[in-house]
Recover the amino acids of this structure.
């Protein structure tokens, strides 16, 4: 592994723990992502000096997140793995998986809680706040669905607009800055 690749792999392992995956899985993914060819478990074990069982568990985790694809090479019985090279595809996959694993269960819980009849004033306040959270998450998921349908070029253009969208809305009178009061 070159110093350039080793640096990225080490950093990705460190960042992985902040993103909700363990260091080993992060490093395995980084090496597969950077590799110009599919890698098998033996390649990963040797390059990263991890145990074969850690590599196998890491590969299963990455497959469950749909971040790596299994590939078979002609004449070779081993399983090889590759990652999409397109960063937008990876971003979309991660966003979809996070939605499925984190957001949808939260929405299900909130819907159930909002259907319950409040029995106290505290419950009514709690439901009002849950309703606000539910509405925000639903709005974000509608926006997410719209964004997911955009091609990468359009999405990049939208992201480059950044604060210009806010200035346009402010100019047209459709923007209220957070913390700003309505004129009375």
């Amino acid at each position: 592994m070159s110093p350039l690749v080793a640096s990225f792999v080490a950093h990705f392992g460190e960042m992985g723990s902040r993103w909700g995956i363990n260091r080993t899985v992060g490093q395995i993914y980084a090496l597969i992502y950077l590799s110009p060819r599919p890698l098998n478990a033996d390649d990963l074990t040797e390059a990263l000096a991890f145990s074969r069982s850690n590599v196998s568990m890491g590969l299963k985790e990455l497959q469950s997140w749909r971040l790596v694809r299994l590939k078979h090479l002609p004449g070779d019985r081993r399983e090889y793995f590759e990652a999409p090279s397109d960063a937008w595809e990876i971003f979309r996959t991660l966003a979809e998986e996070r939605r499925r694993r984190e957001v949808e269960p939260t929405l299900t819980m909130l819907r159930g809680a909002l259907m319950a009849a409040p029995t106290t004033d505290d419950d009514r306040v709690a439901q009002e706040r849950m309703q606000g959270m539910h509405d925000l998450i639903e709005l974000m998921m509608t926006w997410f669905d719209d964004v997911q349908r955009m091609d990468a070029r359009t999405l990049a253009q939208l992201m480059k607009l950044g604060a210009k969208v806010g200035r346009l809305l402010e100019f047209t009178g459709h923007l209220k800055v957070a913390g700003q009061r309505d004129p009375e």
